[in-house]
Design goal:
There is one protein chain. The protein is mainly beta. It is about 15% helix and about 35% strand. The protein has one domain. The longest helix has 14 residues.
Length: about 210
């Protein structure tokens, strides 16, 4: 087991994810110590129909996915601020999870991978897609300070975004003004998975990602 606070899998954090789930019932991946990563950091946004429909925004940092529930979903309009509630860290394996969490289990409902890709912190205008160690160092600092600026290279989400912690303890997800900011259409209108091509509605009528 990796015990360093800033490297590998942080077991005390993983325990929060573990304690909320019965892996004999849910198809979600159990936590495990991940292999040493390489290349750019990754991100994933999952569309999740639980008690209420929301989007889970997850950023890879130090062997886990730092996660925020975004009730209204991300917006590419730089004038719009979206509430983002930080939740427990998820294992890296979660970045490809799609399926149905059984009713009665934590987060019961349908999940698809709405978007995913790579990212870099971009505070100060510099990008670190080719320097994983420095990128993670910057992310640790941003998390501690309550302000993160990241550049996303996803299939749907692109360009610079910020997460800012409020005095109440929640966060706000905001699109920066750049070439990818726009207000002409709602990016959430494309509701299909970037992996399987299925929608939440498809899962609700019994279609499966592997079928």
């Amino acid at each position: 087991m990796v015990t360093s606070e800033h490297c590998g899998y942080n077991r005390p954090v993983a325990k929060k994810y573990e304690e909320k789930r019965d892996f004999s019932r849910t198809p979600e991946p159990p936590p495990r110590q991940p292999a040493e990563g390489g290349g750019p950091l990754t991100f994933v946004v999952q569309k999740h129909s639980a008690r209420r429909l929301h989007y889970d925004f997850r950023l890879e940092v130090d062997g886990v996915l730092k996660s925020w529930a975004v009730p209204a979903g991300p917006s590419a309009d730089s004038r719009v601020r979206r509430l983002a509630v930080m939740v427990e860290d998820h294992p890296l394996d979660y970045d490809s999870f799609e399926g149905v969490i059984p009713e009665g289990e934590y987060g019961g409902g349908q999940v698809i991978v709405w978007d995913r890709g790579t990212y870099s912190p971009d505070e100060g205008g510099r990008l670190f897609f080719d320097d994983r160690e420095h990128a993670q160092e910057m992310m640790r600092g941003g998390l501690a300070q309550g302000k993160i600026s990241v550049y996303l290279r996803g299939e749907k989400l692109k360009g610079s975004w910020t997460l800012v912690k409020t005095k109440r303890g929640d966060w706000l997800l905001i699109k920066h003004r750049d070439e990818y900011a726009q207000s002409e259409y709602d990016i959430l209108d494309d509701g299909k998975s970037v992996i399987s091509g299925l929608s939440i509605e498809d899962l609700k009528v019994g279609k499966t990602p592997d079928g």
